[in-house]
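FAQ: What does the model actually see?

It sees only this:
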Amino acid sequence: MTGPRRRRPLPPVRRPRARSLAPLAAVTALCGGLLVGPGAPAHAADDHPAFTIQDTRVTESSGLAASRLHPGVYWTHNDSDDGPYLYAIDGRSGRTLARITLSGIGSPRDVEAISLGPDGRLYVGDIGDNLDGTWPHVWIYALPEPKQLRDQTVRATQYTVQYEGGPRNAEALMVHPKTGRVYIASKRESGGNLYAGPAKLSATGTNVFREIAPVDLWVTDGAFSPDGRTLALRGYFSGTYYDWNDGHPKAAGRLAVPLQRQGESLTWTTDGTTLMYGSEGVRSQVRPEEAPVQPSPSPGATTKPSPGGGKEAGKQGEGADSGRSGAGQKNGDEEGAGKEGGGTTGKAVLVVVLAGAALYGVRRVRGKRAGK
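And it is asked to produce this:
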């Protein structure tokens, strides 16, 4: 019988992995700094965070408007098959603070947009026409923004709308914050048009909206900046902002539209610093992006594009349903932010090169220690 086998002593504990991965960690930190950049602006979420709409009754949020009476609150509504309801959503928690029922109107058909006018009224656009020219008229409902956020019924005024040149499908309605004139952007994959309503809407007659400018975008929503100098229009995947130019809009650049399930809504925050982008779907998220043009520091100052603003806009021609990107939707490395310091593309290439070098070094160290 032999005695118990003696165990060989364990070798000293070594931690080569931590040391060998140190170059990679350093490169990762460096890459992060390169991609963000030392001069990158603070994210819009500092003051206007993203939020998720918690109310399961809101399944097709198709419009968005920032409240003026209730800071941090956003008005939204469903697309169709819901009823004459508006929802006041808390921009921090995403909870519904009030549901408003509109009275004094007919049965809403295809509500697509909401905007606040300088008269303190909410303008609701029942302007959708998915068959693109089936309905000879559409409607706008206007009601005073409720002073108290509680479930209540508010009487609205109904306006009948027709377009110069015949019916149109539309999802974007914007009220100019200074003049109070109402504008509608038609929705066509190949590009639509911007229409201006009369100086004052009539509740008794038909309000004819007349074409004032072409829009090279498949528009799902739009909004004026609080100072009225800039018009932002979004599509499913991209957007354009315009110098308003006293009613003669001129394309000024691209918007940084976030990727969303079905991007349907857009509003400017009341301080003019941020654009909030919404989407359809249950528990959909509203996401902030820095506004392309920041508010003037003084009444006489000129607004300047922000570091995140794009260059002169071309034709979008995007295709959400067809699965193609438009002919005029240029690569974001050319159109969007990130030109500073060599551009996003150059930084990405540098990141790949540095990361590859670090991994090569790691393998060499491991190989030497393994005796290879």
